[in-house]
Design brief:
By secondary structure, the protein is mainly α. The longest helix is centred in the first third of the chain and has 16 residues.
Length: 93
């Protein structure tokens, strides 16, 4: 597998990022910047939004972005990702 054919790690990362909607890609870039690039980097980051806006896709994009940035950098990034789904509760009247 070569990196440019879409099957290597960088190719997969590029495809994941390309499949995101603009607002999802903007969120991925913002999260990455806050976690890795800003002078006062964040140690944790919470993404919360309405159902169906792509929080899982954003998490996947963040992982792809981290993998892409650590490729060839000589040091892997360490991260822990927690995906939580709030259980559906019926309204109490």
């Amino acid at each position: 597998m070569s990196e440019g054919d879409g099957r290597g790690a960088n190719g997969l990362s590029e495809r994941i990022m390309a499949d995101l909607k603009d607002f999802q890609r903007d969120t991925v870039n913002y999260v990455f910047r806050r976690l890795y690039e800003d002078k006062d980097t964040a140690r944790r980051f919470l993404i919360a939004s309405e159902t169906g806006l792509g929080k899982t896709l954003i998490a996947r994009g963040v992982i792809a972005r981290v993998d892409r940035s650590s490729s060839g950098a000589g040091r892997p990034h360490r991260y822990s990702l927690h995906l939580l789904q709030r259980g559906h509760r019926s309204a109490e009247h």
